[in-house]
């Protein structure tokens, strides 16, 4: 079963675009929450992640971090397994 993927992003953020492109290239379905003009959603993101920067990414309920951490998982060969199972690798 595929893991649920949730991202908090803004449309103009280049790191958000990179993260979304990687997930799109893998055919991953995700929930993209745009925090650009919604302070309540940005506050929700900060409370969940402990960070104020975008993107913030969760896979299977596990907070991955941002774009750099997502690509680090990909380079380490751990992202696909995490996406497939929803488990931290």
UniProtKB/TrEMBL annotation:
Residue ranges of every copy of the Glutaredoxin domain listed in the record: 5-64
Any single Pfam family the record assigns to this protein: Glutaredoxin
InterPro entries registered for this protein in UniProt: GLR_AS (IPR011767), Glutaredoxin (IPR002109), Glutaredoxin_subgr (IPR014025), GRX_bact (IPR011900), Thioredoxin-like_sf (IPR036249)
Keywords: Cytoplasm, Disulfide bond, Electron transport, Redox-active center, Transport
UniProt keyword annotation of Cytoplasm present: yes
NCBIfam families: GRX_bact (TIGR02181)
PANTHER family: GLUTAREDOXIN 2, GLUTAREDOXIN-1-RELATED
Function (record text): Has a glutathione-disulfide oxidoreductase activity in the presence of NADPH and glutathione reductase. Reduces low molecular weight disulfides and proteins.
Family according to the record: Belongs to the glutaredoxin family.
Protein name (record): Glutaredoxin
Organism: Alcanivorax quisquiliarum
Gene, per the UniProt record: grxC
């Amino acid at each position: 079963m595929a893991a649920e993927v949730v991202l908090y992003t803004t449309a103009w953020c280049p790191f958000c675009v990179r993260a979304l492109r990687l997930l799109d290239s893998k055919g991953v379905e995700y929930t993209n929450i745009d925090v650009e003009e919604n302070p309540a959603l940005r506050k929700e993101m900060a409370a969940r992640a402990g960070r104020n920067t975008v993107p913030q990414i969760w896979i299977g309920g596990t907070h991955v971090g941002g774009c750099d951490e997502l690509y680090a998982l990909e380079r380490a060969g751990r992202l696909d397994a995490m996406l497939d199972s929803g488990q931290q690798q």
